[in-house]
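Inverse folding, one chain.
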């Protein structure tokens, strides 16, 4: 499974591609940060972000997209830009028929470090270890994008296996009932 993780932001948007499966080593395929000028109007910044995400989707052909779920903070203006930026990869994935998952920061931290209260340094350290990288991905937006992709491979893969097992059980019950 190949997943594009997106840490949305209007100024900096982290992108990370991770490949692997449950119980197997994961590998980083690509990582980067899309930056947009704060002097540009929001619609131009969103368009620039959309173009770059489209390039990543075409170049790396992920099987799924994982986006950080926006949560309310005190800074409403900041949330609006992040919320708008989070819609861009969702829409891009939908246009291609790719599944999209959202994960809260707490879910991602718990998946990668074992603690939903981990700080950014701990997340970056674990991403570096899990992906067997020789250097820490920077800035934090890049590491967070990789963490989102890791979370989706692990949690999404487990969820898919559970759904498959339930489907098999239902099929068996239906066969017995006939």
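Residues assigned per position:
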């Amino acid at each position: 499974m190949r997943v594009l993780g997106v840490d949305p932001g209007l100024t900096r948007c982290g992108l990370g591609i991770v490949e692997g499966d449950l119980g197997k080593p994961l590998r980083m395929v690509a990582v980067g940060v899309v930056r947009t000028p704060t002097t540009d109007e929001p619609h131009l910044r969103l368009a620039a972000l959309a173009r770059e995400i489209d390039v990543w989707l075409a170049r790396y052909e992920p099987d799924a997209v994982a986006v950080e779920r926006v949560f309310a903070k005190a800074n409403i203006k900041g949330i609006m830009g992040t919320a708008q930026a989070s819609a861009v990869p969702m829409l891009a994935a939908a246009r291609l028929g790719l599944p999209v998952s959202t994960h809260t920061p707490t879910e991602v931290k718990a998946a990668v470090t074992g603690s939903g209260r981990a700080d950014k340094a701990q997340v970056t350290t674990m991403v570096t270890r899990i992906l067997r990288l020789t250097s820490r991905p920077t800035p934090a937006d890049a590491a967070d994008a990789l963490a989102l992709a890791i979370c989706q491979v692990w949690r999404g893969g487990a969820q898919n296996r559970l759904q498959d097992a339930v489907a098999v059980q239902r099929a068996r019950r239906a066969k017995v009932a006939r």
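The chain has a mean pLDDT of 91. The radius of gyration is 17 Å.
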